[in-house]
Queue: 2 jobs
Job 1
Amino acid sequence: MTFVQLIEYETTREEELAPLYEEFIKATEGKRTLTHEFHTKDRDRPNHYVDIVEFPSYEAAMRNNELPETKQVAARMKELCTGGPRFLNLEVIDEQKMTPA
């Protein structure tokens, strides 16, 4: 069953986070277990961000979290944040594909 992790945080140093994401992608090539990622910015709160990361299972997410590269990036990310990061671990209990009108 699909598992989604939300990573919510605030930062005024967003331009320093972008290279960090690229570094993570390169460093975890062939190791990471995530299947889809959205990096989002809150339109109503200027320094508020939410990353939405999809995994094939909770176990896969935990394996990804244990990668040394993930821990390294998470520690550096925390240094760049003014609030958070806060993690929400969500089991997908229902999924509906929609066709737009």
Job 2
Amino acid sequence: MSRELVNEICAAQPGSEWSDPWGGGHDCWKIGGKTFAVTGTQGTHVSVKTDGEEIANFLIETGIGMRAPYLHRSWVALPLDSAPDELAHRIRQSYRIVRSGLPKKIQAGLPPVV
């Protein structure tokens, strides 16, 4: 899977916004101002949020992902050449987790999830 395909999946999430907050070529995808996926300047991995540290540790222990640098332990970095369905699932799941954690007022102003 390529960086472009990751960006397509992220852009398809309702209300998602792209930014490069640190400069230098990061792809940072947000919903309601909160990050749900980020690809660094190297472009080898996409970091996504999981349901918690246990899930993140499971993904790391099974070799699906690795510890996401600079982020909380509930985040994992998945190689861009991961199985496309696994990568798409993890990006969508990260989006849902982050979106559900937003204040209800912000959630109410977002496009509906299909």
